[in-house]
Amino acid sequence: MIVDVRDVEYRVASRVILSGLELSVRRGRITAIMGPSGTGKTTVLKLITAEVAPTRGRVLVLGQDLATLDRRQVFGLRKRLGVLFQNGALLTDLDVFENVAFPLREHTDLTEPLIRALVVAKLNAVGLRGAAELMPSELSGGMARRVALARAIVMDPEILIYDEPFVGLDPISRGVILRLISQMNEVLGITSIVVSHDVHDLAEVADDGYLLSGGRVVAHGSPQELLASDSAVVRQFMQGIADGPVPFHYPAPDLRTELESVDDA
Amino acid sequence: MRAIGQVVLFLLGLLAQCGPALGRPRLIVHQIYNAGARSLIIVMLSGLFVGMVLGLQGFDLLQRFGSEDALGIAAALGLIKELGPVITALLFAGRAGTSLTSEIGLMRATDQLTAMQIMAVDPLRHVVAPRFLGGVIAMPLLTCVFDVVGLFGAQLVGVQLMAVDRGAFWSQMQASVELNDVTEGIVKSCVFGLACSLIAVHSGYTAEPTAEGVGLATTRTVVVSSVLTLLLDYMLTAAFL
């Protein structure tokens, strides 16, 4: 397993975000982490990238227990990971070329011609070689995410993590990102972890899927298995049913009682 | 006390990254331009008007004692030792300080700082240290500009308008302003530069990653920097006496 999350609990003050989480990612596969909003999907990514530490349990990434690593070792591990942020998180004071070149300039002593060759190759892979001189403010949402993808793969990471890669994209851009996720996995052999609630998009490319609800895994299997599941929670999420085990209403007092108290007042 | 402790720890971490940041002078020069060159107009305009007011008030006061020829000394000492460093620091907090805070705060809010950490790059070294050093270097330079323009303003009013003797204005200033006076002004501007830049980058770095959070951090920069400047000014003035 390239990523192994074992019996993890994560709390913020007294609020439990994740509880008894068990999750494994196999090398060379595309693993989808799905679930309703606010269920702790992004927290799982933060655990894997060592942005936060679990309150209980262990997280192993590339064979290393994150709890045993010091700051320098965490930075060393992160050089082997690539993360595509939800909004791209491009550095706004650098143009597209320099954004993609940024990790190379920070972590390598490569010559300028070699950096240029690598950056051009990565930008070409995401179809944006011609946009090298644009500033992030001149890019559309889809383009910004592709540039961020080029930056994420420029150091040839072993694991590529996508945080909600389809949010706010038009159908063409979604198709492009889906194709790129698949290509990165097939051509570069990168292990991919995709966090998203776009079930049907993910079903096209993912090999494995985990469905999270209430801070724990409620279902695991291939996307086809999840789509065919009889479980009420899984069916509600996969088919987009408004009310069910995940209630439509936020917990509140009885409506009749509340309305009567308004009348009395 | 806790907040002060946090700022001290932040400063220690920042100072540890200033060495590596100095190895990239291009980033620092860019920040000196941002904090310094872009504040020039406001500093020069303020310096001119403060100098002119000093010329008027100084002339009014000194002529009551029949010693209006000493206007040059009064204006020079007032500007170099007190008004130059203090007003430049207040202007810096309002112009460059808020810019530093909002820029770093927005980088936090748009995940740019997190992205750097995930790319195994310390944002303190790449983002915060160059901006901090840029501010620290820019402040004494801006103070010098303020002093020079202020003296020109005082001369404009005193000599050109109020007919104070030009020779007396400059020669008395030259004879009476000592190195210690200039040193006091330079030390003050350096200390204010450190304090205002630290407050600005710390507020931005620790801002809540929301629009409201960045707004509050920017306000905090102006308020804390201004009060701290005046407090430090009193302490430094007392120390130099």
What does this protein structure show overall?
The complex is a heterodimer of chains A (265) and B (241). Chain A has ten helices and ten strands. With 265 residues, chain A is an alpha/beta fold. Chain A has a single domain (3-80, 157-264), classed as Rossmann fold (3-Layer(aba) Sandwich). In chain A, the strands form two sheets. In chain A, strands 6-7-8-3-9-10 form a six-stranded mixed beta sheet, sandwiched between helices. A four-stranded antiparallel beta sheet of chain A has the order 2-1-4-5, with helices on one face. In chain A, α4 (112-125) crosses α5 (141-153) and α6 runs parallel beside α7 (199-205). Chain A is globular and about 75 Å long. The termini of chain A are far apart. Chain B has one domain (26-240). In chain B, α4 packs antiparallel against α9. Chain B is elongated and about 70 Å long.
The level 1 CATH classification of chain A is Alpha Beta
User: N- to C-terminal separation of chain A?
Assistant: 61 Å
- Kindly state the percentage of residues in helix of chain A: 25-40%
Distance between the termini of chain B: 30 Å
The parts of chain B where pLDDT drops under 50 for at least 5 residues are: none
Number of structurally distinct domains of chain B? 1
User: How many helices of chain A does DSSP assign?
Assistant: 10
Q: Write down the CATH topology of chain A.
A: Rossmann fold
State mean pLDDT of chain A (0 to 100 scale).
86
Number of structural domains of chain A: 1
Most extensive contact: A-B, 20 and 14 residues
SSE class of chain A? alpha/beta
What amount of the residues of chain B lies in strands? under 5%
What is the radius of gyration of chain A computed over CA atoms, rounded to a whole number of angstroms?
A: 21 Å
Q: Quaternary state, please?
A: heterodimer
How can the largest sheet of chain A be summarized? 6 strands, mixed
What is the H/E order of chain B?
Answer: HHHHHHHHH
How would the global form of chain A be characterised?
A: globular
| Strand arrangement in the largest pleated sheet of chain A | 6-7-8-3-9-10
Q: On the 0-100 scale, what is the average pLDDT of chain B? A: 92
Helicity level of chain B: over 70%
